[in-house]
Batch of 2 targets.
Target 1
Amino acid sequence: MELLADVGGKPGVDCRGFCSYCYFKNVKDFKPFGCRFCSPLSEGCDYCERAIAEKYAGFKPLLRVAQDVHATLKMSSKDPEKVTISGGGDVSCYPDLLELAELLASLQVPIHLGYTSGKGFDSPQAAEKLINNNVREVSFTVFATDPGLRKRYMGDPTPEVSLQCLSTFCASSDVYAAAVIVPGVNDGDVLRKTCDDLEGMGARGLILMRFANHTKEGLILGNAPIMRDIESQPMESFKELVSSINDRYKLRVTGTPLWDPEIGSPFYVASNPEAHLPRTEKRATVITGAVAGPYLRSIFQRIAPNVNVVSTEKEIACLITLDDIQKLNLADMNETVIIPGRAMVHDKAATAALRADGVYRIVRRGPEQLTVDGEMSIGLRREEVLGLEVASFKELIRTINAIGT
């Protein structure tokens, strides 16, 4: 069991200010989208009204975090194998981080610091103290190892200290660095210097994150564009960048929303025809995002020739909203339609939109995920990714067999 110590925190507030490229920057008030957690009769729930925008009240008091952890331990029949400290703010900015680590160290299991940028570390000794309290894994948003760029684009008040802490973590724990790649800012020579430094420090891996700047790329909270003078990198160009960095360095390099050169994911199963997937002759339509579309078509041509895949303009399937579904051509839809499990749309609204031409269609959600992106696969083995995908596709085919025509 992996135990979570959620410290809360609000983006832009509990992280010493927004990074210039932050997904949550400029978020406006928005009407709840509806989602898989909503009541069948009403749009809106805690998840699609608050959680997706990480509208936390702020950091939780240490006592409350400790009580939550204790309650989870009492309810579980298994002993924890790892504890992750995470939240909506920057973990390094949590004022009681050291005290929390000292408390969790008593469990005698490794501690993982969830995504932190290091902006909250004012002393190089902060990393040493955390390591002495059993911190053994760190997810560190580096952006660049150029202190000036960190200061300008991340608002890091002490970039040299943050980088010293990163180096200390690398020497004694498994560090998976992350960098949102802003074209013309931290790519090219800057990225190569960052990779040289990370490799020299001893980092285990690097997750390259494609910068999203438009609604179709996932900015669904009314906050596009985030940076007006920046053009997003085309998806294929980003994939090539991930491959080129992976080829050049010994670091374990992955990308999100794609790709993982070592495993071949997302949709590793697409390039593995020997993977045992059930076949079906039932007829259905599967709606997905622009990134997953080509992969799913390849897979369904092999196992479900009567299933057609319809892609939205939205690139990421779990960020599909009602607007995306309303733009689709209903003539492309079969009488059974599967929407992504995590799509940000209410079931009732999606069904109404897909019956707008007067054709009665059965609309259901598919599995929560069919694959993993680089943020997840960087810590998995090839067989684990394949196993997850096979299980998810089996679940999807069972749904199609049950309600398809």
Target 2
Amino acid sequence: MAAIRQCHVYLEVLVAIEIEDKFDVQDEFVVPDLLGVKGISASSGPKSHQLVAIYFDTPDLRLAARGITLRRRRGGDDSGWHLKLPKSAGVRQEIQLPLTRSAKIVPPTLAEQVLVYTRGQALVPVAELDTKRAVTKLLDAEEQVLAEVADDRVKGTVYGETTRVERWREVEVELVKGDEALLKRVGKRVIKAGAATGGSANKLGRLLGEAVPKLPQSPAEGTVGAAVFAYLRRQTDALIAQDGRVRRAEDEAVHKARVACRRMRSAFKSFSSIVTETDTLQEELRWLGEVLGEVRDLEVIQARFGRELDGLDGHLIVGPVRARLLDDLKHQEEAGYERIREAMNGERYFALLDALDAPYSFTGKATRESGSELAKIVTKEWHRVEKKHETAQSIEDAHEREIAMHDVRKAAKRARYTAEAAGFADEAARAEAIQEALGLYQDGVVAQETLEKEAAKAREAGEDTFTYGVLAGLERAAADRARAKFPKLWAKLTS
């Protein structure tokens, strides 16, 4: 069971991974005897069910466009609300809730799960599927259920300005305790009996057909435009995938969402000769990254101080330093999450997601062969790192030089993301090494600043601040070590 957070209210829902294959069959099709399939020793059934499912979506079918189904189903062994989210080919994540009194209002918990797709649009009934299902269970020698074969006769109704009705038959094979090799063997037997591999990922997609909107298409395969498009699409999907997890404050979710924002911003800057008119997108991604960044920084600093306090001898911990450092920062983190949720429920966030889903404006260079063009861009970004480093080292004032070295770190991060997007692993690793090395120093500086602020609060409360000084000393030493090691690392990576 997994707990889903909705405005600080926790509801228990069933989360399952569904692995299945679908097959299109003619009305006269006969489900074959599957006892001869390796691993199957017996079968049970068929058992008949009448399933009536009402499907919900936005009026413009935003969920269907991404292969998502949200339904209220009566009948069978799993009556209730079902939300199915695509994971990978043939594998879907399903979230289930019990039936609610209302058949026309989506439970808030599920509505929140798809808010990143609906983006403020209402969820309304768009279709109904009335299915006569005959289920046969496939068992092993110990009578464990390996898989279920569902023979479905379907009546589908599409709601809208005019009502449309379609009828068809299909067969589903869903794994229970079996493995994918078994699924493949059963599928071969079903196809041999006259079935065809299903043309739609789900019944709703088949019913809605051409009414489902299409997402933007990639430029021609093998071009630099296609490579950039694919990378941006992956990062958009990564951001969307983390939306629900961020709302539930799950581990690493904020970090992964912020990284997706940073990668996209970096790509738009680095590949500006390929994809244009992205200034507004970059600004909005920067805004979202900053909203997410507040909580992420607090998560990191709490873990850092927690490890350091755990490593100190007891006599070095004086006063309620652990409570102030960890609890105070935790309260700040919780407040930061509230600001994140407010932002992620707002029109600005929804508009950003819509813009990321819209077609990109590509230049003529997008049609060029990807290899050489990407190599030029990766090289250009690394030269930018070298130039930033040269500029920083020419600054005599130590404080100003430190600020300039922070710019070197940011340039290295951009070079890393660019190389990763282009598929240049060695170049990405080199840039990442620079980024991480400078990051160690920067993290130490930030930690010292945080300790200074928290010590001031402790002092005002009349608390002993000795331990804050101990921690500050540890952070200063760590930062100094990182700074001292960097010249040697730079020489090694640039020789």
